[in-house]
Every structure is written in structure tokens, then in C-alpha cells.
TrEMBL record:
<keyword id="KW-0770">Synapse</keyword>
<comment type="similarity">
    <text>Belongs to the ligand-gated ion channel (TC 1.A.9) family. Gamma-aminobutyric acid receptor (TC 1.A.9.5) subfamily. GABRP sub-subfamily.</text>
</comment>
<keyword id="KW-0869">Chloride channel</keyword>
<dbReference type="InterPro" id="IPR006029">
    <property type="entry name" value="Neurotrans-gated_channel_TM"/>
</dbReference>
<dbReference type="InterPro" id="IPR006028">
    <property type="entry name" value="GABAA/Glycine_rcpt"/>
</dbReference>
<keyword id="KW-1015">Disulfide bond</keyword>
<feature type="transmembrane region" description="Helical">
    <location>
        <begin position="275"/>
        <end position="295"/>
    </location>
</feature>
<dbReference type="InterPro" id="IPR036734">
    <property type="entry name" value="Neur_chan_lig-bd_sf"/>
</dbReference>
<keyword id="KW-0675">Receptor</keyword>
<comment type="function">
    <text>Pi subunit of the heteropentameric ligand-gated chloride channel gated by gamma-aminobutyric acid (GABA). GABA-gated chloride channels, also named GABA(A) receptors (GABAAR), consist of five subunits arranged around a central pore and contain GABA active binding site(s) located at the alpha and beta subunit interfaces. When activated by GABA, GABAARs selectively allow the flow of chloride anions across the cell membrane down their electrochemical gradient. Pi-containing GABAARs are mostly located in peripheral tissues.</text>
</comment>
<dbReference type="InterPro" id="IPR006202">
    <property type="entry name" value="Neur_chan_lig-bd"/>
</dbReference>
<comment type="subunit">
    <text>Heteropentamer, formed by a combination of alpha (GABRA1-6), beta (GABRB1-3), gamma (GABRG1-3), delta (GABRD), epsilon (GABRE), rho (GABRR1-3), pi (GABRP) and theta (GABRQ) chains, each subunit exhibiting distinct physiological and pharmacological properties.</text>
</comment>
<dbReference type="InterPro" id="IPR006201">
    <property type="entry name" value="Neur_channel"/>
</dbReference>
<keyword id="KW-0406">Ion transport</keyword>
<keyword id="KW-0325">Glycoprotein</keyword>
<dbReference type="Pfam" id="PF02931">
    <property type="entry name" value="Neur_chan_LBD"/>
</dbReference>
<dbReference type="InterPro" id="IPR036719">
    <property type="entry name" value="Neuro-gated_channel_TM_sf"/>
</dbReference>
Length: 445
């Protein structure tokens, strides 16, 4: 009984001043024709909000439209986005038909007395309805029984992202609207005007992304309890790479070029070349750590920016190793020119004393064989292994020693200064080729 009077007095507020409200009808002071207040008699005489329109008959057609007010944040680490939307739903309830061609905007609190669809946002993590200064809801009733129900919602929705091409990636996110309890036999979801049902998304200005395109879809969700209607708004976001070029790509490239400066410094300047190499390696390491700090939870992805930073680090480290090789070869060359003294000479003297003793205690033939064997052990040059006096195992040992010396000779740097000379050309050339393949792959494949 209380509900009957509450609805009555609430709806009377929308009547013109010339009309008078009574409990069961509406009388006009200027005429005898009675006109029903929109939905009043239905609300007070048999209207059941727990039953959908056309209950037991055809499904209810629910047309929807969206206004995207803002997309406040897109998180790669949490793989979601937060958006504020205006959701508008339209359906027809024949129990609320009244005479005339007017529409009435009712108090939003009266929505508790009407049947409304059980629409929810699929993959929503957090959502809330704005309530300042009152709940941001709109109920508008038309004479043919059509109801417009509008809501202002802020929601955080999951968006599965592929970050393998980060920061040159394009992400596809969805906003899916679905009926929670009513299957396709009870309700049917449609877009009010197709792609034109969505507004505001083309005007969004995001910090890192640009909306490439968007489109609407009508689908069904197959669940164990039935087939439920579903509407999908799908939009593609392309990341703006200019920020990352200025923040990461340019500094890392300059560090690689800085490491090449050591090629123009002489090999004798050990502190200068070592300082340049170590400084560039440490700076590159700091840059790599900083680039990953914002995506600490997505380290499972090998991203495009990680590949580029790894390439730059390899070239910088290679420049440092190049100086180590050149300096070592130079020091070995100088050591070879110096007089040989020490244990090697003592060994030679001992072997000479042994040979003299053998000469005195053996025959001339035995002496010649031992001299030949001693020369094989001591000499580091190629030896003629075709001597008929040599035994088979001595010949094999001689051939293997000659081949080892020949292989080592291929890798021996005769002029260490040529290492820097070739590095001045090869390092920039290879770096340019790697950049061409890198940018071509991640931009066009």
C-alpha cells in the first residue's frame, strides 16, 4: 500500500498544473476525456517488475549505444584499460503504453520499480556507477512504451596484449556487453545504429596511443547454461613510438657511436681506451635497467626494445674486447722481439749437457738420432718430417706439430695496429646493416 501511494505522488510531479491526480485515474479540468498517466495505472495495478516484457512470448529487443567519455589509463603490466562510458539501452514494454506523443523523464530512483535488463561488462575487473550528486542514471518513458535507460559507468577491463613488438606494437582491446541471466530466448541485443552507435572514441587523446580504428560486432556467448546475447566494441590502439625513440633508441645509438671513439686512440693510451669502454658498458647497462622498470611484470616477453638494447650492448662490449685483443697482440709482439732468457734458456742448456754426455758414451749413429729428436722437441718452426732416420711415431708427432703451428699462424695478428684500422670500418658497417634488418622486421612484418 505504501508503494502504491509513493509511486502515485512521485509520478504526479510530472503532470501539468491544469491536471488533478487521484488514486486510480487522472481528470482534466478542461475536458471530460480521461488520459492515463504514463505507466501509473500499470505500476499500481498489476505491473510486475520481476517479469520481463512479453514474458512467455517473443524475446525483448534491446538496442544499445555507447559514448566513450575517456580512457584514463592503459596498463601494460596489468594488461587492462580504464574507461568512462555512457551506456544507453532502449527497449519496449507494452505494459507502459499511454496515449499521446510525449515523453517523460522520470526520477532515476523509480528504476527500482521497473524491469531493466541485466546487462554486465564481460572481463571487467572493477566497475562503479557515478553517484555525484545523485546516481548518474536516466529513465525516459515514451508513449509507445519505449524506455530509455542511461548509465554513467567507469570500468577497468582486461585487455590481452602482445608485447613482442613493444614499443612498435598495435593492441586490440574489447568492450563486451552481455546479458547475465537472460539467454537469447528472452532478450536480443542489437546496436542501435551499427558503428554509428559508438561516439567519442575518435576524439580521444591518449598519452601513448592513437586509436587506429574501431568497429562493432554482434555475437553470442555459449555457456553451460545456455546461449547469451553479446555486443562487442573492438578498437585498435597504435603506440606512439616517438617518445621511445627520443628516450631510449637515440641514447643507446649514441652510446654505441661513443664506443667507436676508442678506435682512433693509440694502443698505448691504456687509461683512455679502458675508461671509454667501461663507461659505455655501464651506461648501457643503466639504460637497459631503466627501460625495463616500467614493465617489470612483463619480463616474460622478449620485446623489440630489449632486442635493440641487446644489440647495442653487444657492439659496445665488442669494442671493449677489440681493444683487449689488440693490446694483447701488441704486447706479445714486443715480447717476441726481446731476448729470450729464463727457464727456456736453462732448459736448452740442460739438454745441451745431456747431448754432450750422450756423444761421449754412444756411437756416432746414436748421436745423430738423438740430435734429430732433440731438434724436434725444441724447434717451434716447421720441420722436415721426411727424414729416413725418424721412427713412425716421431714422424706423426712431427706432422701434427707442423699443422698446429700453421693453424695458430692463421690466427696470429702480425700487425696489431690493423685491428683498429679494420674496426673503424667493420663496426659501423655491421651496425648499420643490423639496424636495417631490425627496423624492417618490426615495422613491416
Amino acid at each position: 500500500m505504501f508503494c502504491r501511494y509513493f509511486c502515485f505522488f512521485s509520478l504526479c510531479l510530472f503532470l501539468p498544473t491544469q491536471r488533478r491526480c487521484s488514486l486510480g485515474h487522472i481528470s482534466d479540468l478542461h475536458g471530460s476525456d480521461a488520459t492515463s498517466l504514463p505507466g501509473f495505472e500499470n505500476l499500481t495495478m498489476g505491473y510486475n517488475k520481476y517479469l520481463r516484457p512479453y514474458f512467455g512470448g517473443e524475446p525483448v529487443q534491446i538496442a544499445m549505444s555507447l559514448d566513450i567519455a575517456s580512457i584514463s589509463s592503459i596498463s601494460e603490466s596489468d594488461m587492462d584499460y580504464t574507461a568512462t562510458i555512457y551506456l544507453r539501452q532502449r527497449w519496449t514494454d507494452p505494459r507502459l503504453v499511454f496515449h499521446g506523443n510525449k515523453s517523460f523523464t522520470l526520477d532515476a530512483r523509480l528504476v527500482e520499480l521497473l524491469w531493466v535488463p541485466d546487462t554486465y561488462i564481460v572481463e571487467s575487473k572493477r566497475s562503479f556507477l557515478h553517484d555525484v550528486t545523485v546516481g548518474n542514471r536516466l529513465i525516459r518513458l515514451f508513449s509507445n512504451g519505449t524506455i530509455l535507460y542511461a548509465l554513467r559507468i567507469t570500468t577497468t577491463v582486461a585487455c590481452n596484449m602482445d608485447l613482442s613488438k613493444y614499443p612498435m606494437d598495435t593492441q586490440t582491446c574489447r568492450l563486451q556487453l552481455e546479458s547475465w541471466g537472460y539467454d537469447e530466448n528472452d532478450v536480443i541485443f542489437t546496436w542501435l545504429r551499427g558503428n554509428d552507435s559508438v561516439h567519442g572514441i575518435e576524439k580521444l587523446r591518449l598519452s601513448q596511443y592513437t586509436v587506429e580504428r574501431y568497429y562493432t560486432l554482434v555475437s553470442k556467448s555459449q555457456q553451460e547454461t545456455g546461449s547469451y546475447p553479446q555486443l562487442i566494441l573492438q578498437f585498435e590502439l597504435r603506440r606512439n613510438v616517438l617518445y621511445f625513440i627520443l628516450e631510449t633508441y637515440v641514447p643507446s645509438t649514441l652510446l654505441v657511436m661513443l664506443s667507436w671513439v676508442s678506435f682512433w686512440i693509440t694502443l698505448d693510451s691504456v687509461p683512455a681506451r679502458t675508461c671509454i669502454g667501461v663507461t659505455t658498458v655501464l651506461s648501457m647497462t643503466t639504460l637497459m635497467i631503466g627501460s625495463r622498470s616500467s614493465l617489470s611484470k612483463t619480463n616474460c616477453f622478449i620485446k623489440a626494445i630489449d632486442v635493440y638494447l641487446g644489440i647495442c650492448f653487444s657492439f659496445i662490449f665488442g669494442a671493449l674486447v677489440e681493444y683487449a685483443v689488440a693490446h694483447y697482440s701488441s704486447s706479445q709482439k714486443y715480447a717476441a722481439k726481446a731476448p729470450q732468457e729464463g727457464p727456456a734458456n736453462e732448459l736448452t742448456k740442460e739438454m745441451e749437457e745431456v747431448n754432450i754426455t750422450n756423444i761421449l758414451n754412444s756411437s756416432n749413429t746414436s748421436y745423430e738420432r738423438k740430435i734429430s729428436f732433440t731438434s724436434i722437441e725444441i724447434s717451434s718452426d716447421n720441420i722436415n718430417c721426411s727424414d729416413l732416420t725418424m721412427k713412425t711415431h716421431e714422424k706423426i708427432k712431427c706432422v701434427l706439430r707442423n699443422k698446429m703451428h700453421r693453424i695458430i699462424g692463421y690466427f696470429t695478428i702480425q700487425n696489431p695496429s690493423n685491428v683498429d684500422h679494420y674496426s673503424k670500418l667493420l663496426f659501423p658497417l655491421f651496425f648499420m646493416l643490423v639496424n636495417v634488418f631490425y627496423w624492417a622486421y618490426y615495422l613491416y612484418f
